[in-house]
Amino acid sequence: MGSFMAVIKKNILGDISGRLGKYTYRVRNGKLVKYRRPVKQRVSHSGAAVSARNDFAITIRLAAFINSFPALKQIWKNAKVPGSTNYQKIIKNNSAAVKLFGISAKNIIAPPGIPFNVNELSLSDNNIKFNIPVNSNELKRLFSNPVIIHIIFYFHSPVKESGQPYCFSGLVTELPAFPGRNAYTINPGLNYGTVKNLREYKKAVIYFSVSMLNPSAGNKYWTSSYAEEVDNLK
Questions:
Q1: Has residue 87 got a pLDDT over 60?
Q2: How would you list the strands of the sheet with 119-123, edge to edge?
Q3: Are 34 and 8 in contact (CB under 8 A)?
Q4: I need a labelling partner for 186 at 20 to 30 A (CA). Which of 36, 172, 200, 228 fits?
């Protein structure tokens, strides 16, 4: 409800100040001014309501992190999925999964695109290695151009009880075109923040997506998300 303000020109009751019903009266610049009092909303503290608010908060954090990657932000902006902005699209396409499962492999970092898989995933103290089979014509067209590999980590279950319950980190790797290959093994180094989180958390969900570095107009130039859960990081 919008704010309401009125100037009282003549007051038969004498000077008025304070609250009266749903209005507040104040003297301002020598005039008696009437304001509509804001409506108070009752905040439910039931378990279901608190859980729903927490679900929404973590969805917002996930969306904000995904949106911080310029290429992913542009992909969501271009995607024909529910939502009026790229940020709202990320939220709308993740909120149902978060409500049911929390942040999990059910969530996505990219809207539906070219299907792909990740094979032979291995994670060490300072490196991640995985293989992408190039097993469709769409993937062959994609990888015939320079690409960007997007990797986002959702870490949870901290080693120390005092640690933050979860956090996000990620990395972006640009790779040259490699036409004609049936698979591509990717072996990027991990940044400092991800290496630190590997030591501080027991579990993680790793999300992957690939997009064309220099997309051409009118083509779907990105893959769908692939996600894998990893535990026993320590």
A1: yes
A2: 119-123, 128-133, 183-186
A3: yes
A4: 200
Tell which residue, 137, 156, 151, has the closest CA to residue 202. Answer: 156
Rounded to 5°, angle at Cα 67 from 210 and 100: 90
Q: What is the DSSP string of 133-162?
A: E--SHHHHHHHTS-EEEEEEEEEEEESSTT
Q: Measure the CA–CA gap between 1 and 14, rounded to whole angstroms.
A: 30
Q: Is the dihedral of CA 155, 157, 158, 162 positive or negative?
A: positive
Quick one: tokens of 209?
Answer: 């997506």
- Whole-model pTM: value is 0.77
pLDDT surpassing 90 at residue 115: yes
223 vs 17, more confident: 223
- Tell me how far apart the alpha carbons of residues 48 and 13 are, in angstroms, rounded to a whole number: 49
Q: Where are the domains of the chain?
A: 5-36, 47-230
